[in-house]
Amino acid sequence: MVLKRKKSEDYSRDFKTISGVFDEKTRLSLYKLLNKKKIQIQSLVKEGKESIVFSGLTEDEKEVAIKVYRTRTMDFKTISKYLLGDPRFQKVSRSRRNFIYIWCRREFKNLQIASRNDVNCPKPIDCSENSLIMDFIGKDGTPSPRIIDVKLDQPQKTYDLIINEIKKLSKAKLIHGDLSVYNILFDGLPILIDFSHTTTPKNPIAPQLLRRDVENINSYFTKLNIRVIDSEKLYKDLIKLLGIKEDD
Known about the structure:
Helices cover 40% and strands 17% of the residues.
């Protein structure tokens, strides 16, 4: 199936379709952002408790992903734990909506840094309030599968590539913070996604998040009976790349 540009009346129906999903402020903000970038919504890709992802087409027929964070059902306590410890975003209004806007902007900024440092991830395009536009990883509105959903022909090679991506991220002074085989797509190569939890080494919980990322990846690939780097050794190697002192 090849996605085709919609007529204007179809585009209007897109917003009627999502009228029951988003509040009026979100719909207006999303409408303005899509008009600004000349993007049309094509299909619903994923609907979760915290966000909804659509596929879209640009004016030159490039596929993009449109991620919209929900303003009503986001877990406020969870995101505040990650956000308030990030020195880049300490002056935060305590209103729920503003928290979510910054959460969205934070993912955009993290993707910018990761992309500039050649991390294999979606390239960010723009963001506004609680909506984020980025490259679509997949084809014809169907996203590439997650690692968890793929029978890997070369699991050792895939593991090594994932570790290399984590190292590139560490050199960029970022910790993914929510890395697992559920947040890595596979399109011939592993592609890291979902950067909203990603933080800097200066966050007090950075070492804890890094250790969890390492253990998540090693745990999965150990089950595939391949050779993995010792978790403690890998953790210490990444700590050095991040510039975190081990007694921090």
